[in-house]
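Task 17 of the worksheet. Students: predict the tertiary structure of the chain below and write it out as structure tokens. Keep your answer in the requested format; marks are given for formatting as well as content.
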Amino acid sequence: MVAEKPVVIFSKSTCCLSHSMKSLIRSFGANATVYELDEISNGEQIENELIRMGCQPSVPAVFIGQQFIGGSKRIMSLHVRNELVPLLKDAKAIWI
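Model answer:
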């Protein structure tokens, strides 16, 4: 689900942190692929796999350049340290 996509976000439509992460990443011009786990048939299976990968809580879970980066704390930490934009550039999610 993350192959060949520069940015993938696993989310739930009712999660405010998921909404914030989607908004933040889109604010840089990245067009993230978003999977709303509460709206897809295999969402529970995907959520269980995210938990097995160490996502606590399970959403939001952000992948950049096919690599699991983390949840909202990790993404905000990268943003505050000015390290998020370089990751997005390296993944060719943004060009500027």
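Marker's comment: The chain has a mean pLDDT of 94. The chain has one domain: 7-91.
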